[in-house]
Design goal:
- The structure is a single chain.
- The protein has five helices and eight strands.
- It has 153 residues and is an alpha+beta fold.
- The protein is elongated, with a radius of gyration of 20 Å.
- The protein has one domain.
- Helices cover 50% and strands 18% of the residues.
- A hairpin with a 4-residue loop joins strand 6 and strand 7.
Length: 153
């Protein structure tokens, strides 16, 4: 399935140490933050799907799913935004596919001749992931600053 996974791999060393500390001392806060970021990722994915697809029947948008935030490999956290049922066709839209008709053939349903024998992919998940990585790094830095301010009171 098409989807994106967001993690902490782009942070500098201080932020990594702070995230490790918070994940050990305040796992509930980290989980709440990661769930919020997952919801942001879901919102960004929805925006990119709407912008890149022509038909809006709803199954692709209904299939956007945010998994729970969970801890893995010790102190690392992960939240997954993906497309699942009823969007079984999500990978075809993401990566493109052949449609079985010859290029140059007239298709009455479309009212035009086919230009290619292949439908190009929209790459909405890849674009959403790149956008979310930029957004995520800034959010983590703001969250760490907020946690430090709250901890010093």
């Amino acid at each position: 399935m098409a989807g994106a996974v967001f993690d902490f791999h782009e942070l500098d060393e201080f932020n990594r140490k702070m995230v490790r500390f918070y994940s050990k001392e305040f796992p509930g806060e980290v989980k709440k933050f990661m769930n919020k970021e997952g919801n942001d990722g879901k919102r960004i994915m929805r925006r990119y799907i709407k912008a890149t697809t022509k038909k809006h029947t709803g199954n692709l948008l209904k299939g956007i799913d945010k998994g729970p935030a969970h801890q893995y490999q010790g102190d690392s956290w992960q939240v997954r935004v993906r497309l699942k049922k009823p969007a079984y066709h999500a990978w075809l839209v993401e990566h493109g596919h052949g449609h079985g008709e010859q290029a140059g053939k007239y298709v009455p349903a479309l009212g035009k001749k086919l230009v290619s024998d292949r439908v190009e992919g929209r790459h909405y998940a890849a674009r959403a992931q790149r956008s979310m990585q930029k957004h995520f790094t800034g959010d983590v830095e703001r969250w760490i600053e907020q946690m430090l301010r709250e901890g010093l009171r």
